[in-house]
Amino acid sequence: MKDLRITEEIGDRAGLAITYNNIGGIYQAQGDYSEALKWYQKSLKIREEIGDRAGLATTYNNIGLIYDAQGDYPEALKWYEKSLRIREEIGDRAGLATIYNNIGGIYHAQGDYPEALGWYEKSLKIREEIGDRAGLATTYNNIGGIYHAQGNYQEALGWYQKSKNILERIGNKHHLAIVLKNIGLLFQRMGQKEEAKKHLQESQRLFKELGLEK
User: Fold this and answer.
1) Domain ranges in the chain?
2) Which fold would CATH assign to domain 100-214?
3) pLDDT per residue as tens digits for the range 49-71
4) What phi and psi, each to the nearest 5 degrees, are found at residue 153?
């Protein structure tokens, strides 16, 4: 908190908003959503006062993520849409891709697969255009999840493999572990026990290596 004290002492309000937002992110990562929300609200108050629209879009999205994680989808969608409006106005394409993906996730979680797929495809288009490889891996995995849930296993596998290939190249072990688990579960559904076992074990190994045993 040393940086926070310095920032508060010199009266750097924009810097304070960033720091409050970052502290919120730490609590969010730890699953302490009420504490995270408290810090995001502190960031939000400053960003509203100083007119930091890009910052507001970020904090609106982060608050949406909190409600999303808690399963309060209507509230999450409300915050995502506030972020979406600003990002459209300021032309933040990378931010738009993130929001489109997050809104897709809301519909995905609610079982509205056609609506979810539409939002994921909007995210995908931007991420392909701007060359966001990590973002592409996320969206490929999410699209795979739609086809997986619908029982279209070969289509799902193709999307999961596209995600896996990127994650291996960029070295994102956490997300790779998630995708490998999805592939393993998919092979289970397809009755391919050996392939399922191989992918699930590799996923478990990565989670253990990262200290995130699942």
Assistant:
1) 1-91, 100-214
2) 1.25.40
3) 999 999 999 999 999 999 999 99
4) -70, -40
Q: Degrees (nearest 5) of the Cα angle 23, 27, 33? A: 125
Alpha helices in the chain (DSSP H): 2-10, 13-29, 33-50, 53-69, 73-90, 93-109, 113-130, 133-149, 153-170, 173-189, 193-209
Which residue in 131, 138, 134, 128 sits closest to 101, CA to CA?
Answer: 138
101-143 pLDDT, tens per residue?
Answer: 999 999 999 999 999 999 999 999 999 999 999 999 999 999 9
Question: Cβ of 6: how many Cβ atoms within 10 Å?
Answer: 12
CATH number, domain 1-91: 1.25.40.10
- DSSP 3-state assignment of 30? coil
